[in-house]
Amino acid sequence: MSDLVLVTGASGYLAGHVIEELQGQGYRVRGTVRSLARAAELTHLSGVEFVQADLDSDAGWAEAVAECRFVLHTASPFPVAEPESDDELVRPAVDGALRVLRAAAAAGVERVVLTSSVAAVMIGNQGRLNTEADWSDINACNAYEKSKTLAERAAWDFAAAHPELELAVINPGMILGPIQRAAFGTSVDAVRILLAREMPGIPDFGFATVDVRDVAIAHRLAMELPQAVGNRYICAGEQVSLPEMTRVLAASYRVPTLVLPDWLVRLSARFNPAARTAARYLGRTERVSAARATADLGWTMRPVRQSLLDTAASLIHYGIVLDPGAPRGTAARSAPRPAIA
Known about the structure:
The structure is a single chain. With 341 residues, the chain is of the alpha/beta class. The chain has a domain at 4-178 and 211-238: NAD(P)-binding Rossmann-like Domain (Rossmann fold). The chain contains twelve helices and twelve strands. It has helices at 13-24, 36-39, 61-65, 87-107, 143-161, 189-196, 212-224, 242-250, 262-268, 273-281, 291-297, 304-317, and strands at 4-8, 28-33, 49-52, 70-73, 111-115, 166-172, 174-176, 206-211, 232-235, 239-241, 321-322, 333-334. The strands form three sheets. Strands 3-2-1-4-5-6-9 form a seven-stranded parallel sheet, with helices on both faces. Helix 6 (189-196) packs across helix 8 (242-250). The longest helix is centred in the first third of the chain and has 21 residues, at 87-107. It is globular. It starts with a strand and ends in a 7-residue tail after the last strand.
């Protein structure tokens, strides 16, 4: 049987680590990119066959899934700021997931592993421990949260109508961990902002986090193990606040340590887009359980401290953040922001 695996959105932060994990286990990997011209930038992904396919078009997907045993669908838009219309994220997320699933079913793919998010689990359910039995309340979701929830629901509906295609879903929390090239995903931007000292202080909110390398392992396990079929798996630990992250980074780097009062963040939100985004998370708790992933997949998480320090080291290594150890009172220089991975 073929050991060829398709990974969608191969230029992405998570996808790169998924590809590395698969190749380390002996799998052949094919990856989709929106343009083959972009494949030349992915020098860190050696031995990968690239094909052109976009979530907004049917073109290329039949060729992408041909002869593949498995498909890992990691591609989905993840914005830095809220879009003008929810449909900017919801439509490509839902349509793209269905496009991949239809192509996989038609090609006789054995199993698809879909990357969802805890955003599809816990929104509107905060204040209690959330499990895979929970679903986010669409009416309480922002555009990104809605896109992940609706795309995952659409995938499960498709799987129910096509029992010949196995489906498993990974629901990661905020993904941290090292970048593999001089481009970075939205999720590591919080660490970049702290290292670059772009804010005089930090708002007091947090996220249930997970290391990108552990999420990659979870995808492989969900692809391989028979018990994963028909299940969704939360992959995230306890909530970690930005002040807690700062204390870890401050042991090695000069980062802002002043915790901003909530009232000031809300006041700033009236005229500052970044503060407006931050204000949405004030007072929100993210309590999720990864017990099913541990029990079914034998999955484990590395310490958050390691993830944070490895994230910081990689941002420095690739020149995304410069002079993070500059003397206090000297502004750190942040490299020009590359395209989102």
